[in-house]
Design a protein that fits this description.
With about 325 residues, this protein is an alpha+beta fold. Helices cover about 40% and strands about 15% of the residues. The protein is built from seven helices and nine strands. It is elongated and about 105 Å long. Among the domains are: about 80 residues, no CATH class; about 40 residues, no CATH class; about 80 residues, Immunoglobulins (Immunoglobulin-like, Sandwich), CATH 2.60.40. A four-stranded antiparallel beta sheet has the order 6-5-8-9, with no helix packed on it. It has a three-stranded antiparallel beta sheet with strand order 3-4-7, with no helix packed on it. Strands 1-2 form a two-stranded antiparallel sheet. The longest helix is centred in the N-terminal third of the chain and has 48 residues.
Length: about 325
């Protein structure tokens, strides 16, 4: 007997799985899957197909490596026991295992190569900036696009005629199985009306609270380090938390000044004065009187008769500069 699955997922279908077949007279028969011919069922399944294949391949490779490692360890243990027995008989010390430097060097080169490739890919991906979402979409389409296209081509050619012919029907035309027809041909059994489904498993293993506790502690630690790294903890609790680094920047309360304004500069360094230079003419800068710093503040008074110009304030101790344009009032 041949059955066509035209909707849903085929991940849980495998040879040897048991099922129930109902004939036209309502009788039920024990059924067993003996052969599966794989074909696309839906575009959605085709989208996830490459990732499932990769995951399945990784699982199979890990299982194979684990089996080989177990066999090698068993053989090595048996050989060691045999060597120890011979040493007891002869009285000679067992040979010391050789340290293979070449293997360690090869592993180091392989790890360095993989790290370099991963770093280059990560840097290239982060360099996209605001285009990162489009880069993610493009990567997904590059991986799943071919599988989805092949599935779409095969789904367009699905024909119910051969199955009907096998049941004694005389079908001369193409009976296309589109998405709505395929969804109606294969349905998931529903529970009877008026019944309730219990989702509580009394035999389920109890979940440990430690993963949640460890995750919470890691998040709290990461948040605390970020606050410490940005000196926010020191600003909030200066007597308890030391500063991560000394801030030596120079800040002004105005980005543009007008004649008659007072501009206050906040000096984070221990500079005693600030250098002031008139830089309207870049080829002939003119030095102006220095600004004294008191309690981390310096005030620059702009004269009322000032014309349009540009002044640069320089903190020689920290090396920071602020360029302050002076524009007439409108």
């Amino acid at each position: 007997m041949a059955c066509a699955f035209t909707a849903g997922e085929s991940d849980n279908l495998f040879e040897g799985r048991n099922g129930i077949f109902y004939d036209r007279e309502g009788r039920d028969w024990d059924a067993t899957i003996t052969k599966i011919i794989s074909n696309p069922i839906s575009i959605q399944q085709a989208f996830w197909s490459p990732y499932k294949k990769v995951l399945r391949g990784i699982q199979e490779a890990i299982a194979k490596k684990a089996a080989e490692a177990d066999e090698a360890a068993t053989s090595k243990l048996a050989a060691g026991a045999a060597t120890a027995g011979e040493s007891l008989k002869t009285g000679a010390a067992p040979p010391k295992p050789k340290f293979e430097v070449g293997t360690i060097a090869a592993l180091g080169v392989a790890v360095s190569g993989i790290t370099g490739v991963f770093t280059a890919l990560l840097v290239g991906f982060l360099s996209l900036g605001a285009w990162i979402p489009f880069g993610i979409i493009g990567l997904l389409l590059a991986i799943s696009g071919p599988s989805m296209f092949i599935a779409w081509m095969k789904l367009r050619t699905r024909n119910l005629g051969p199955i009907l012919d096998a049941n004694g029907w005389a079908v001369n035309t193409l009976t296309r199985v589109n998405i709505p027809l395929g969804s109606s041909l294969t349905e998931l059994a529903r529970i009877p009306a008026g019944s309730n489904r219990s989702l509580v498993d009394p035999f389920a293993p109890k979940k440990s609270i430690w993963p949640g506790i460890i995750t919470t502690l890691v998040l709290i630690g990461a948040l605390g380090y970020v606050l410490y790294y940005t000196n926010l903890l020191n600003k909030w609790l200066p007597d308890v938390i030391p500063a991560h680094h000394s801030e030596i920047g120079l800040k002004a309360d105005k980005s543009i000044a007008h004649p008659g304004d007072s501009v206050t500069f906040t000096v984070a360094s221990e500079a005693a004065s600030l250098q002031v230079t008139e830089t309207s003419d870049a080829n002939a800068p003119a030095a102006l009187p220095e600004l004294p710093v008191k309690d981390g503040k310096a005030v620059l008074e702009i004269p009322q008769d000032s014309k349009s110009s540009s002044i640069t304030i320089h903190d020689s101790l920290s090396g920071t500069k602020i360029k302050l344009p002076i524009l007439p009032k409108i």
